[in-house]
Amino acid sequence: MKATVEERDTLVGVVRRVAEQLAIPFTVGGGIRTIADADALLSAGADKISVNSAALASPSLITALAEKLGSQAVVVAIDTEGGRVRARAGTTETARGTVEWAIEAERRGAGEILLTSIDSDGTREGYDLEITRAVAEAVSVPVIASGGAGEARHVAEALAVAQAALLASILHEDPERLTLLRAELREMGVELRDAA
User: Fold this and answer.
1) What is the pLDDT of residue 68?
2) Other CB atoms closer than 10 Å to residue 117's CB: what's the count?
3) Same domain membership, residue 119 and residue 77
4) Do 69 and 157 share a structural domain?
5) Is residue 194 part of a domain?
6) Cα–Cα distance between 46 and 154 in angstroms, integer?
7) For labelling, which of 54, 87, 147, 178 has a CA lying 20 to 30 Å from the CA of 189?
8) Same domain, 111 and 135
9) Who wins on pLDDT, 114 or 3?
10) What is the 3-state secondary structure (H, E, C) of the chain?
């Protein structure tokens, strides 16, 4: 399913409004299939763009984006299950191995890897540290662990093997939890940047 012009215009408008309100860098993904798509989102105020299915369908897109926008603006999102890459929001199997795809994405110009473990996503039982460690050890770009955070200990464990950890459902239901979570992580000795 391709995004319509109206959907793209709506997303660009949303990004513009978010950029006006937000004091922190943010990444936008979903429906980015061309340099023009990515350029419009960055021009609207996003700091980075994230590609997944479109990059799997045409890996040269990563290279083209990196050459035009710079690697620092290109995040390759990888959805993984059982060590294999999945496409289309995790609904479609591919023949690619997760570690091999991460290596190729870096070689093609990705500046970061956003690694979501479908096996752990939503469980709140912890990140998939095995696949996260394997990817982080195979590439030299930052790896963002995603999927499975339920408590501060999980975040600390992920940060021991990856450069960042994505938090979703743990904060969606209780956004105020972020302040407490930061304090808990600091008590565990995890170094964090000061919040903006």
Assistant:
1) 97
2) 25
3) yes
4) yes
5) no
6) 28
7) 147
8) yes
9) 114
10) CCCCHHHHHHHHHHHHHHHHHCCCCCEEECCCCCHHHHHHHHHHCCCEEEECHHHHHCCHHHHHHHHHHCHHHEEEEEEEECCEEEECCCCEEEEEEHHHHHHHHHHHCCCEEEEEECCCCCCCCCCCHHHHHHHHHHCCCCEEEECCCCCHHHHHHHHCCCCEECCCHHHHCCCCHHHHHHHHHHHCCCCCCCCC
Joined tokens for residue 21: 């309100």
CB 168 within 8 A of CB 149: yes
Q: Pull the structure tokens for residue 110.
A: 């990705």
> What's this model's pTM, rounded to 2 decimal places?
0.92
In angstroms, the first-to-last Cα distance of the chain is 38
Q: 160 and 64: one domain?
A: yes
Distances (CA, A) of 112 to 41, 51, 76, 196: 18, 11, 6, 22
Q: What is the pLDDT of residues 94-110, one digit of tens each?
A: 999 999 999 999 999 99
CATH number at residue 102: 3.20.20.70
Per the structure, the count of domains in the chain is: 2
pLDDT in tens, 116-149: 999 999 899 999 999 999 999 999 999 999 999 9
Euclidean distance between CA atoms 95 and 87, whole angstroms:
10
Asked whether residue 17 carries a pLDDT value surpassing 60, the answer given is yes
Q: What's the mean pLDDT in 136-165?
A: 97
- Model confidence band, residue 5 (pLDDT cutoffs 50, 70, 90): low
